[in-house]
Amino acid sequence: MIPIELAKLSFLQGISLGQNFLEGKIPEQIFEMKTLNRLLLAVNRLTGEISGAISNLQSLQYLDLHGNMLNGSIPRGIGKLDQLMLLDLSHNRLSGSVPGSAVSGLKNLQIYLNLASNMLVGSIPSELGALDMVQAIDISNNNLSGSIPPTLKGCKNLQFLNLSANMLSGQLPSGIFSTLDLLISLNMSYNQLHGEIPASLANLKQLISLDFSHNEFIGEIPKSLAKLTKLMHLNLSFNQLEGPVPDEGIFRSLDANSLQGNAALCGSKYFSSCKSRKHQFSKKALVIILVLAAVFVFLIVFFAIFVLKQRQRLHTRSKGETYLNGEASFAPILKKFTPTELETATGFFSDENLIGSSDLSTVYKGRLEGTGQAIAVKKLNLTQFPSESDKCFLTELKTLSHLKHRNLVRVLGYAWESEKLKALVLAFMENGNLESIIHRPEEVNNSARSWNLYERLRVCISIANGLVYMHSGYDVPIVHCDLKPSNVLLDEDWEAHVGDFGTCRMLGVHLPEESSNATSSAFQGTIGYLAPEFAYMRRVTTKVDVFSFGIVMIEFFTGKRPTGLTVEDGVALTLNHLVERALVQGMHAVLAILDHRMEVAGEVEKEKAMGVMQLALSCTLASPEDRPDMEQVLLSLVRLYDNKGA
């Protein structure tokens, strides 16, 4: 529990107790500490409501309570904290509406407002538009309804806006995009938005990521989206879009997943050619055909369900009946492959198709019979895991089946037989992994690539995007725990994808905190990339991944492995200490430790190289509280990438 004695420190300005195991309610006495400017209690087990007495903390600038089990409503008294620059109440159990009166009082909010992953209802308050200095707003993963308020155009400094996974409806107010010209990331996926995608999105010249997937948008894709030259990530899948796909800009390199679920699209390499519209059905004929088709589909679905029910009754008599309910929960999402299919695809798991191996698994390249699709099959080592691995495998696979992000390696399916076979079927990445790029370029396609500073930054942005999604884009934070270059894979367009996420957890290696085996050596991560609190105390928070990401950044930009020591002036230095020493010595020393294959030309690139090293070093600080979170890291990377050549 938080000791009430803290309140006796009458001149205390900051309380930072994040990422511990603190329980109980926040003591009422804390809200009488009128000199506090920082109250940071994130990632604990705090319960109860946020007291209305919080309005007494008139000097408060940073309030971070995310990652607890706080319930009740957002107190209106928060609106009296007019010095507040950061408010993060995400990943709790808060309910009720977002009080507009509270939002309107937060006019000094500059960094971000994060209310994601709660149980908030009602509409987005129009008062949100009064936050004209805020840089990021995240209200995703709630139960908000109604339309998007046009007053959002008042958030003129907004760079990140995430309203995904709600029940928002109506059309997008096109007028807001004329003033939000600093937006870098816009996510409105998994809502019920309809109407046409406004062409005014073309005003967002700084936009790097745009996700409108899983809505009800109609009409054609605006050709103006092709003019967004900085756009790196675009997802318009599962809408009701129609007509030709633009053939310029990002659409030239867009993969099929970003447009799937829009049956009426045409053109591009993923859809049939656009046909002439001279011979169209009348509306009446079209309605009749649609009704008949719907009846036909209903009958097929009814028959299929009947057959599946019959088969399920037969299966429940088998030895594996204990696990079938768990398997059924993700079976509609992921394809279940038979052992024979995977044996055929991989040449009976032949050594010729071996890609890599570890104590935990062996990975084979394969090609599916019939479709010819290239796949990677990760065959898990059954001898390494406890007897409960069947249950853990199914539970974690259910989670993995819902993790869908451009920068995570896509899970296509699985194969499972109790005590016989556990395997994941993954999308095959044509250009191998980042470890080979850094240390064995001769093994990689197009190894003559120069990999300049901006190309490396782009890879880092892709990795950071994937980690941000894992940390804050799902119901609960998911920590990778073993991020390293060999777990970063590159597709045919050299886009980075984080792989091996959750594999160890999937197999029960990440045991519950209450378990006496929680410190066992079943999973030790990888030496050189482990955060100190994880290596020595097995403390797992999202900051573990931040540390590993910082090491990966340093390794990518210096070409040096973190597992060796560099001797300078007779002193043995670790990789992050080498960077720290170079930053102290200045620009010349920093340039001297960079990868000699990476040309850094001009003062702008030299300054950016310094910025890269400073950011990477901040990620590897010994105390997890001192490290930035991945959202902050992503924002910094995007700024470094921005204005290239300026």
Q: From the helix content, strand content and strand pairing, which structural class follows? A: alpha/beta
What is the CATH class of the largest domain?
Answer: Mainly Alpha
How many E-type strands?
30
Number of helices: 14
What is the assigned CATH homologous superfamily of the largest domain?
Transferase(Phosphotransferase) domain 1
- The shape is globular
Summed up, the domain count is 4
Strand order, largest beta sheet: 1-3-5-6-8-10-12-14-16-18
> How is the biggest beta sheet arranged?
10 strands, parallel
Strand residues, percent: 15-25%
CATH architecture of the largest domain: Orthogonal Bundle
CATH topology value of the largest domain:
Transferase(Phosphotransferase), domain 1
Q: How would you state the average pLDDT, rounded?
A: 82
Distance between the termini: 52 Å
User: Gyration radius, to the nearest Å?
Assistant: 26 Å
The parts where pLDDT drops under 50 for at least 5 residues are 277-281, 313-326, 503-524
